[in-house]
């Protein structure tokens, strides 16, 4: 899991922060993105994984090849959660 004390990553590049962010829960990831908005441009892949991990109906559609690509996986997660 993401370290409890990690609230933002400052201006750390996504490629450096990604290994830490991959371990975060969605609520932690959202908090870090709010504090470090430059990550939003790159973190959609993390939200994609979270959507497929946490929502079985989306995972099934993905496995069937019928899941349309949303404009934002982050927004989709927020709507589903």
From TrEMBL:
<dbReference type="Pfam" id="PF06881">
    <property type="entry name" value="Elongin_A"/>
</dbReference>
<dbReference type="GO" id="GO:0006368">
    <property type="term" value="P:transcription elongation by RNA polymerase II"/>
</dbReference>
<protein>
    <recommendedName>
        <fullName>Elongin-A</fullName>
    </recommendedName>
</protein>
<dbReference type="InterPro" id="IPR010684">
    <property type="entry name" value="RNA_pol_II_trans_fac_SIII_A"/>
</dbReference>
<dbReference type="GO" id="GO:0070449">
    <property type="term" value="C:elongin complex"/>
</dbReference>
<dbReference type="InterPro" id="IPR051870">
    <property type="entry name" value="Elongin-A_domain"/>
</dbReference>
